[in-house]
Specification:
This protein has eight helices and eight strands. By secondary structure, the chain is an alpha/beta fold.
Length: about 220
């Protein structure tokens, strides 16, 4: 585990949560070094492997974040096994969660800040209407916004996209005070995300090996 990176982030940004993307952890033995080092938040983006990974770590006090696009047909399979959803991206999904979830699920609304057609998420202008549409739902607690910046080396562009998500959060928070969190920043752009106000980072390979600084 990249303990030096985690320590640096925790020291400079003590209120920021690191969610370790578990895509590259394919066995219980892959997970144990992280759990034993104190990592408690894990993020999975594949519904078909989530249950097995949860079973591996059932004896440990970990929380599971679902960080990928969730197909409506797979909601029933996993929705009561996760602690947080980072990609609430359409009303149909919200309806299915409301129907299937037992208890309240903290959720991030996914916003397409890069304005790329291949990425999921609401347009900036559609977030507030969506919040209004689900305000009576009993099993969904929207705690923040999630966004993925463009896959580019143009740091100015990435910064502008993260700033747009933060500005949207700030504007909406006046009417929706529980909307506090910003899930933004991955291995390739987490430093910019931190500077622009991220409260949750979704980190993958960069956390796997001490000294590794790839994507």
């Amino acid at each position: 585990m990249n303990q030096s990176l985690k320590k640096t982030i925790n020291t400079r940004y003590p209120n920021v949560k690191i969610v370790l993307a578990s895509k590259y952890l394919e066995s219980k033995s892959d997970f144990l070094p992280f759990v034993e080092a104190g990592q408690t938040e894990f993020g999975e983006n594949r519904a078909e492997v989530l249950e097995e990974k949860i079973e591996w770590l059932k004896a440990y006090p970990v929380k599971w974040h679902y960080i990928g696009t969730l197909q409506t047909k797979k909601v029933k399979k996993i929705i009561n096994d996760i602690d947080c959803l980072h990609a609430l991206d359409r009303l149909k999904l919200a309806d299915e969660i409301e129907k299937r979830r037992v208890g309240v699920l903290p959720c991030f609304i996914q916003v397409n800040i890069s304005d790329e057609p291949q990425k999921h998420g609401f347009d900036v202008n559609d977030v507030e209407p969506f919040l209004e549409a689900i305000k009576g739902y009993q099993h969904i607690d929207v705690i923040g916004l999630m966004g993925m910046a463009s896959d580019t080396e143009d740091e100015k562009k990435i910064r502008q996209q993260f700033q747009a998500l933060r500005d949207l959060r700030d504007t909406l928070q006046e009417k929706y005070p529980k909307l506090k969190e910003l899930s933004m920043g991955m291995s390739q752009d987490y430093q910019i995300a931190l500077e622009e106000g991220a409260t949750v980072l979704r980190l993958g390979r960069i956390m796997l090996t001490e000294g590794y600084h790839g994507t």
